[in-house]
Amino acid sequence: MSQVPTEERPAPPENPGWRIEHLPLLSAVSMALLLCAGSAGFLAGGPDAAVGAAAGVLIVTLSYTMSTLVIAWADTVRPALLMPLGMLTYVVKYSLLGVILAIGVTIKWPGWVALGWGIVAAVVVWTGVQAWWVHRRVVRKVI
């Protein structure tokens, strides 16, 4: 069933799958990074650091995947929902992260530093791979 375009509701795009077609690549890269971070954490600080580093990568992977899915869904349902749902997603994610960190600072766990490094590594890798993917897609469209 296709939607009829009106002034209030534009026609949906021909192929809405492009909004999430990068997720399989990013998920695979994130899982490889999770294994590398866990291994590096284990070698650097033992089992606690391994769990912390892997958890940091997993937190970023789940967070970014959730944002991508919410934004892609909102864009296919009604583009006017993009900003409110995108902002709500970020508010929920960062509020949850703030609560977790506020509770976490009272816990004396040796894996906290590794968790932080896992988060940093995942943000850098995810952002870099996504930027590379977007660049490759744009170049492919231009050529």
Automatic annotation (TrEMBL):
Keyword terms, alphabetized: Membrane, Transmembrane, Transmembrane helix
The keyword Transmembrane is assigned to this record: yes
Domain of life the protein comes from: Bacteria
Residues passing through the membrane, by range: 23-44, 50-73, 85-107, 113-134
Name of this chain's protein: ATP synthase protein I
UniProt organism field: Actinoplanes philippinensis
